[in-house]
Amino acid sequence: MQQLIVELGSRSYPIFVGSDLLPTLANTLQSSLNQQIFIITNEVVAPLYLEAVKAQLGARDIATFVMPDGEAAKTLTTWSEALDALLATGFARDCTVLALGGGVVGDLAGFVAASFHRGVDFVQMPTTLLSQVDSSVGGKTAVNHPRGKNLIGAFHQPKAVLIDTHFLTSLPSRELSAGLAEVIKYGIMADAEFFAWLEQYMPALMALDQRALTQAIMRSCRCKAEVVSDDEREHGRRALLNLGHTFGHAIEKAQGYGEWLHGEAVAAGMAIACDISVEQGHMLAADYERVLTLLRAANLPTSAPASMDWDEWQQLMLRDKKVQGGKVRFILPRGLGDAVITDKVAESLIVKAVSRQRG
Ligand SMILES: NC(=O)c1ccc[n+]([C@@H]2O[C@H](COP(=O)([O-])OP(=O)(O)OC[C@H]3O[C@@H](n4cnc5c(N)ncnc54)[C@H](O)[C@@H]3O)[C@@H](O)[C@H]2O)c1
Ligand SMILES: [Zn+2]
């Protein structure tokens, strides 16, 4: 098992990463778990792992809330139902809310933890690669609103994050690839050496080699933790984590959420961002080719749907959260391992990059 700390002063917390952590769960999380534990999971994950987790929690008081699967359940209604169930247990403010599931469960459970008694302890056990390398770290919790994704939520850091790569053995391969897009993102935006490591180990990761997965998750979490420690509430640098996301969100919206997985759209978005960087004279053409090759090795798309026209792109990008003062802010790589936030990009370059089909 490996461990790293997210440094946030008195709210610092450990992330544990390893390949078979369930049997020693209680020991590992000892100081982070209270006597009363409210587990939030969903109907896909519960039959796979809930009993095994409960069995490890020993003589604690445990109650469970099983939510429906999918993004559509990340709502105020589900949040409210979870709170009803939590209140019915009689648990007090010194309980722990434990999220067992992907990013949807983690975001909703985190918001339950943030709001019950104005904030109770929260522990994450992320079960998708995306949640293991991204959503479980950093303290953003949220539910969706009919007017948009993640519009209602709070910052609420967990007490601990326990990442067991064994969970990934049951994950659909498309979901694995979608998580790998965020892993590749860290390499492009902040760590050229990690990018090179990924080039070498992508086949192992795709084959669920547990040691390679532990390594990739550790490095991804370290990168995210470092950015979050520096800029917890996204006043500046944390926005770099959105590399590929302005284009990606536009693709997700154009296709209707659910058609493209988030990570797939981000992969195409990163290819577009790198394309622009090459045209601007920053990224080397050879490095751009390396990015495309790595995305393909992870079974990820490298172009937006050809059906999206420029009008649609403009409208969708202007609705993105990263718009400030009517200007779209882009996160663009400068080269491998470095990225900047900028609103100075010639429109002609964007038009060309979003419409380019990369085969
Ligand atoms: N808080 C943040 O900082 C942050 C960052 C990125 C994304 N997010 C949020 O995360 C969510 C996406 O998370 P996700 O990609 O994990 O999606 P998800 O939670 O919907 O999980 C994907 C699918 O895999 C299933 N699943 C989960 N674990 C499994 C396992 N071990 N074996 C088999 N199936 C499993 C789920 O039931 C679901 O059907 C979005 O709502 C997004 O907004 C939040
Ligand atoms: Zn993302």
Automatic annotation (TrEMBL):
Main location (coarse class): cytoplasm
Catalytic reaction annotation: 7-phospho-2-dehydro-3-deoxy-D-arabino-heptonate = 3-dehydroquinate + phosphate
Keyword Zinc: yes
Pathway connected to this protein: Metabolic intermediate biosynthesis; chorismate biosynthesis; chorismate from D-erythrose 4-phosphate and phosphoenolpyruvate: step 2/7
Chain ranges passing through the membrane: none
The protein's required cofactors: NAD(+); Co(2+); Zn(2+)
Boundaries of every 3-dehydroquinate synthase C-terminal domain copy: 179-323
Positions of Zn(2+) binding: E182, H245, H262
Gene3D superfamilies reported for this sequence: 3.40.50.1970, Dehydroquinate synthase-like - alpha domain (1.20.1090.10)
Gene Ontology BP, a term: aromatic amino acid family biosynthetic process
Pfam hit, one: DHQS_C
Location(s), subcellular: Cytoplasm
GO CC aspect terms: cytoplasm
Cofactor: record remark: Binds 1 divalent metal cation per subunit. Can use either Co(2+) or Zn(2+).
Presence of keyword NAD: yes
Family: Belongs to the sugar phosphate cyclases superfamily. Dehydroquinate synthase family.
The protein's name in its UniProt record: 3-dehydroquinate synthase
Organism: Aliidiomarina maris
Lineage of the species this protein comes from: Bacteria, Pseudomonadati, Pseudomonadota, Gammaproteobacteria, Alteromonadales
Primary gene name: aroB
